[in-house]
């Protein structure tokens, strides 16, 4: 059995400031990752759910980008203030936070 039931990947990629897509690293992703780690530990979930720093997820235009696996739920424009809601509603309650969810063509709602 795998050691973690879920992984939360937080893009920490940094592009040059001149890149028109921006970068998650410049949009506070390190603080978002730390907030996930704290929130998971506070709930005793640190051994079940892992908050991982990720390299480029190729969604920096929507950063800070976060993806939850194994569900494959993508979140965009995530801030530190959104972390508690994602943990409580999605990771604990099983209901993705629709207001932050990225939608892709052909994806079922």
Fill in the CATH topology.
Glutaredoxin
Q: How many domains in all?
A: 1
The whole-number mean of residue pLDDT values reads 91
Report helical residue fraction.
10-25%
Q: Report the uncertain regions.
A: none
- From the alpha carbons, calculate the radius of gyration and give it in angstroms: 13 Å
- CATH-derived architecture: 3-Layer(aba) Sandwich
Query: What percentage of the residues does DSSP assign to strands (E)?
Result: 15-25%
CATH superfamily: Glutaredoxin
Question: Can you tell me about this structure?
Answer:
- With about 110 residues, the protein is α+β, with helices and mostly antiparallel strands.
- The chain has one domain: 3-Layer(aba) Sandwich (Glutaredoxin), CATH 3.40.30.
- The protein is built from 2 helices and 4 strands; from the N terminus they run βαβββα.
- The protein has a 4-stranded mixed sheet, with helices on one face.
- Helix 1 crosses helix 2 (about 80-90).
- It starts with 5 loop residues before the first strand and ends in a 17-residue tail after the last helix.
Entry keywords:
109 residues; alpha+beta; Glutaredoxin; 4-stranded mixed β-sheet; 2 helices; 4 strands; 25% helix; 17% strand; globular
Which helices and strands occur, and which strands form pairs?
Layout: E1 6-11, H1 29-42, E2 49-54, E3 66-69, E4 73-75, H2 80-92
Parallel strand pairs: 1-2
Antiparallel strand pairs: 1-3, 3-4
Give a quick summary of the entry.
The protein is of the alpha+beta class and 109 residues long.
């Amino acid at each position: 059995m795998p050691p973690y039931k879920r992984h939360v990947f937080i893009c920490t990629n940094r592009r040059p400031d001149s890149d028109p897509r921006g970068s998650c690293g410049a949009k506070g992703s390190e603080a978002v990752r730390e907030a996930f780690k704290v929130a998971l530990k506070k709930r005793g979930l640190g051994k079940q759910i892992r908050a991982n720093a990720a390299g480029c997820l190729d969604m920096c235009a929507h950063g800070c980008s976060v993806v939850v696996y194994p569900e494959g739920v993508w979140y965009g424009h995530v801030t530190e203030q959104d972390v508690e809601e994602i943990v409580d509603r999605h990771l604990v309650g099983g209901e993705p936070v629709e207001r932050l969810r990225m939608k892709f063509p052909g994806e079922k709602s």
